[in-house]
Amino acid sequence: MAPSSVPIHGNYHGYYAKRPSVNDPRLELLPSSTFSDKRVLDVGCNEGWVSCEIAQSHGASKVVGVDIDDTLVRGAWRRRRTVWSAQGPPQGSDTAPDATGTSRKRKRVDSVGEADYFPASCAHSLGPLPIPLSNPQLFPHNVSFRTADWVNEPIPEDEGGYDVVLAFSITKWIHLNGGDAALKAFFSRVAAVLPPGGQFIVEPQAWETYRKAKRMDRRLRDMAQGLKLRPEDFPRLLASIGFGEPVRLGSVGDGGFHRPVDLYTRV
Ligand SMILES: C[S@@+](CC[C@H](N)C(=O)[O-])C[C@H]1O[C@@H](n2cnc3c(N)ncnc32)[C@H](O)[C@@H]1O
């Protein structure tokens, strides 16, 4: 992406200084098993805070974060290292004897150390911890990042497909940059990488919020004039592409970040 001083893709730097980002409240709306052993694509991952949280604390087997802005993607790799450096030692192995002396399978979370165990000052003063070779399905090996305009450029990981695709606070930016056609292309690409039963989790921005974005840039303003689709049309559009009725999981976030989170299932 050509560097621009105006974040016309919603490619805000320092985004997670503005919205609560550790124990992200949007993730707390989801059923607890949403990411367990799942392959997840986080479209518009920004600096990777949500991707890292899903990979570390929600049991995903693989998380791929993709963002159009390479500087943000480099920040996401740094975030992965920071989160790893704050993680505590593993609390147990995958199998451990119970009181009867028989081995039983422990919940995998036990073999991942506690998040935020070491204070951030440790990595700050001593440098980040090295990442040892270990289970590829455990944090931090289970999360990686790519730079791409995912609406128009496939990434190698797409070939294997995903079980869950996340689109938090990105539909407005795809819509304003590429019009109704880009939004349809985006939803069709999501349908193409999900098997039946796969889940698409969307946090759409309300139409009223497009107004401020249009003021950012003349091209966005011109594009906005030709838009026919509205966020209220997304369920109908997604139904025509192969998704069931959405389940509205709730709305969270403070001030301008108060938005709904919708869950669609691929039929
Ligand atoms: C407002 S931020 C939301 C970040 C994150 N999803 C969250 O809600 O915590 C939108 C992100 O989408 C990215 N983005 C916009 N259009 C994109 C595209 N076509 N492909 C990949 N990333 C895109 C931006 O660079 C930005 O980081």
UniProtKB/TrEMBL annotation:
Residues 84-94 have a biased composition (Polar residues). Residues 24-267 form the Bin3-type SAM domain. SUPFAM superfamilies: S-adenosyl-L-methionine-dependent methyltransferases. Its EC number is 2.1.1.-. One of its GO terms (molecular function) is snRNA binding. It holds the Pfam family Bin3. GO terms for biological process: methylation; snRNA modification. PROSITE patterns: BIN3_SAM. It comes from the Eukaryota. Keywords: Methyltransferase, S-adenosyl-L-methionine, Transferase. Residues 83-110 are annotated as: Disordered. Gene3D superfamilies: Vaccinia Virus protein VP39. Belongs to the methyltransferase superfamily. This is RNA methyltransferase.
